[in-house]
Design brief:
Shape: globular
Strand content: 15-25%
Number of domains: 2
CATH superfamily of the largest domain: Periplasmic binding protein-like II
CATH class of the largest domain: Alpha Beta
Order of helices and strands: HEHHEHEHEEEHEEEHEHHEHEHHE
Amino acid sequence: MKKILTLILALTMAVGLCACGGGEEAPAEDTAAETVTLKVAASPTPHAEILAQVVDVLAEQGIELVVTEYGDYVVPNTAVEEGAEDANFFQHAPYLESFNEENGTHLVSVAPIHYEPMGIYPGMTATLEELPDGATIAVPNDVTNEARALQLLAAQGLIEIDPAAGLNATPNDITSNPKNLQFKEMEAAMLPQIVGEVDLAIINSNFALQGGLNPAEDSLASEDAASEAAQTFANIIVVKEGNEENAAVLALIEALQSDAVREFIETTYAGSVVAMF
């Protein structure tokens, strides 16, 4: 009887081992994907609005896009340099180059997304033709955008600028000023708020939109969206040098440079913002 019981027990154990794959339990597979957080600094309009269009697209890829809005042109860059933000979206390449030179930062462009034509807006003077002698024109006080504003005035025949000044032009580089125009240099974000206090104001489209202006309808003149300026001043995604191939950043660029985002830009901004992809 003992031999029979021993044989039955041995057979039972053998069957159990076969059912369990030789007694080795397969490890449980972890199918939960790790979520990556991508922090991007942006101007509220249109940059943060455009970024909002790809939040769900990136979420499907396991990337949580966190957008922090800034109202100036300095902190978004220092935040990326210091690692508080992974990328930013608010500036064009000439401003980035100037910022790096002046601040010793190591920021690089990874992709152009859109272009915002700069416009001339009426203040105390309603039209360019009515502009009086000695009129005051408000312009951005950062180097590249001030030069851009002066070039726009030159394109209207109101002033002439030394060709050698290029994107570094200041009022000191004006070679002809028949109307003796005066220039009020201000932080770009403040221009929509003081437009009624000057004859004209030259404003970046993003700040014009934030200030309740419609660049397509309210501006007296604007940069040509098909011009060389459009390529020069395209707004870009910026990261710290060394992070150009970051997988989450590359996914962000792919999502932004999509047909869906192009359609959003075209229908939402009606020419005030132009897709550059």
